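Q: Please design a sequence for this.
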C-alpha cells in the first residue's frame, strides 16, 4: 500500500506541474509565482526520478497525458455531435419532433453560434500580444520570449513535453 500512495503522490505532483505549465498567460506577478512553483515541482520530480531520465521523462509524461486527454475530448465531442444529429434526424423522420420544435432548437443553436462568434474577438485580442490589432509573427516572438527562459533552463523538460504532446495526441 506504501508504493500505491507514493505513486498517487507522484501522479498528483506531475498533474500540478502540467497545470502550472498551462499558466503562461499570467500577469508578471503571477508569472514569477508560477515559475517558482514550477521550479519547486520540477525539483521534486527530479528527486523522484533519481536522475533516470530526469526532466525529459517528467516532461514526456506531462505532455503525453495532456495530448492523450485532448485527443479523447476531441473524439468524444465529435461523436456526440454526430450522434445528436443522427438521433434528431431519426426522431424527426419518425414524427417524434415537429417543425415548431426544430425551429425552436434551430434558433437556440443559432444563438449559441452568435455568442461564440461574439467571443472570438476577445480570444484573438489575447493572442495579439503587441497590441497592434493584428496577429503577426511578432506576437509569436513575444509569446516565445515569455516561455524561452523557462524552456532554456529546462530544455529536457521542454523537449520531453513537446514529444509527449505529439505522442499522446497521436496514440489517443
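A: Design:
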Amino acid at each position: 500500500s506504501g508504493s500505491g500512495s507514493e505513486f498517487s503522490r507522484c501522479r498528483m505532483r506531475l498533474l500540478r506541474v502540467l497545470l502550472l505549465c498551462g499558466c503562461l498567460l499570467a500577469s508578471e506577478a503571477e508569472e514569477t509565482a508560477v515559475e517558482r512553483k514550477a521550479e519547486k515541482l520540477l525539483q521534486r520530480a527530479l528527486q523522484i526520478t533519481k536522475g533516470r531520465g530526469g526532466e525529459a521523462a517528467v516532461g514526456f509524461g506531462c505532455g503525453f497525458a495532456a495530448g492523450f486527454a485532448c485527443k479523447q475530448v476531441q473524439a468524444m465531442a465529435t461523436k456526440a455531435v454526430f450522434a445528436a444529429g443522427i438521433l434528431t434526424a431519426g426522431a424527426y423522420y419518425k414524427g417524434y419532433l415537429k417543425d415548431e420544435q426544430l425551429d425552436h432548437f434551430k434558433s437556440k443553436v443559432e444563438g449559441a453560434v452568435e455568442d461564440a462568434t461574439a467571443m472570438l474577438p476577445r480570444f484573438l485580442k489575447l493572442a495579439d500580444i503587441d497590441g497592434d490589432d493584428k496577429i503577426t509573427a511578432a506576437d509569436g516572438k513575444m509569446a516565445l520570449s515569455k516561455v524561452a527562459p523557462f524552456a532554456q533552463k529546462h530544455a529536457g523538460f521542454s523537449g520531453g513535453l513537446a514529444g509527449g504532446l505529439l505522442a499522446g495526441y497521436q496514440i489517443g
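Q: Thanks. Anything notable?
A: The chain is about 85% helix and 0% strand. Residues 23-27 have pLDDT under 50 and may be disordered.
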